[in-house]
Amino acid sequence: MMLINSLGEYLYYLIFTDDFSHKTWIYFLKNKDEVFSWFRHLKVLIENEIEKKIKTLRIDNGTKYESIEFHFFCKEVGLKREATTPYTHEQKGVAKRKNCTIVDIVRAMLHDQKLQKFLWAEAVNTIVYVQNQCHHQALGSNTPEEMFNGKKLDVSHLEFLEALYIFMC
């Protein structure tokens, strides 16, 4: 997003978005070499949480996904990798739109509240949390979290944040 160290000394963030539920997971990185370890972490988390396997990983053509270790891991666990065509944003779909929305809202939050730019990671984390808990147009009356887990959530603690999120979008 920005090359400004966050409060936690992070320079980057990495998002994974489920195409079906639109649920997003976010990880903060100090360097791009951490992508593979965070993907392995996410894979275990998902498989333990919903007892289903990730079948396909759609990736951009970034070098962060091209390590031999990453290739062997995907082959070993039977994970299909789909690389998008360079400069074809339509193929990135949900993840690309999600990232653009996150960046736009974070910039607005920091600017509106006159917050220092080093707080970008905290703002990004908040946005992803709220998005996962709020109703999504493409999901009808469900939230990404509900679609992913198959369980209704109590989101009464988010009524104010949902109204804020809707206002900002």
**What percentage of the residues does DSSP assign to strands (E)?**
5-15%
Total of DSSP H or I helical runs spanning 4+ residues: 6
Tell me how many strands there are: 4
Q: Estimate the mean pLDDT confidence.
A: 83
The biggest sheet, with number of strands, parallel, antiparallel or mixed sense and barrel status, is: 2 strands, antiparallel
Structural class: alpha+beta
Oligomer: single chain
| Low-confidence regions | none
Order of helices and strands: EEHEHEHHHH
The percentage helix is: 40-55%
Radius of gyration: 17 Å
Distance between termini? Answer: 19 Å
Lateral strand order in the biggest sheet: 1-2
Envelope shape: globular
Question: What this model shows, in words?
Answer:
The chain is an alpha+beta fold and 169 residues long. Helix content is 45%, strand content 12%. The strands form 2 sheets. A two-stranded antiparallel ribbon has the order 1-2. A hairpin with a 6-residue loop joins strand 1 and strand 2 (24-29). Helix 3 crosses helix 4. The longest helix is centred in the middle third of the chain and has 20 residues, at 93-112.
